[in-house]
Amino acid sequence: DLPDIKGDKEFGVKTFASRLGAKKVALMACLTLGANYVHAIGTALFSQPGTFNTPLMVGAHAALALMLARNHKKLDPDDQTSIKRFYARIWDLFYLEYALYPFL
Q1: Residue in 61, 70, 75 with CA at minimum distance from that of residue 23
Q2: pLDDT digits over 53-68, tens only?
Q3: Which parts of the chain span the membrane according to its record (predicted)?
């Protein structure tokens, strides 16, 4: 939980974020989520026709990947407000994915 690094360190809670820092954990999270978006695009492109709404699945996941990259680029790992904004935007991406799901 990136916004809680300071408290985690203060109370001796060992997390990836408290051990590795916001910058490294944010990068790992973005790479993992980005890989999922790339996989979703590939799945849509290489599945049997009619399995997915391919234009929507490809377009939406490409847009989500761009939003993710933009969010990571704007992150200042030394600024608590920036970390909170980054974290909230990651949750926004998850909510968008859930909203998209019924239409795929």
Answers
A1: 75
A2: 999 999 999 999 999 9
A3: 25-46
Domain total of the chain: 1
CB of 2 within 8 A of CB of 17? yes
Q: What is the DSSP string of the chain?
A: -GGGHHHHHHTT---HHHHH-HHHHHHHHHHHHHHHHHHHHHHHHHSPTTSS-HHHHHHHHHHHHHHHHHHHHH--TT-HHHHHHHHHHHHHHHHHHHHHGGG-
Q: Does 75 reside within a domain?
A: yes
Structure tokens at 30: 């973005």
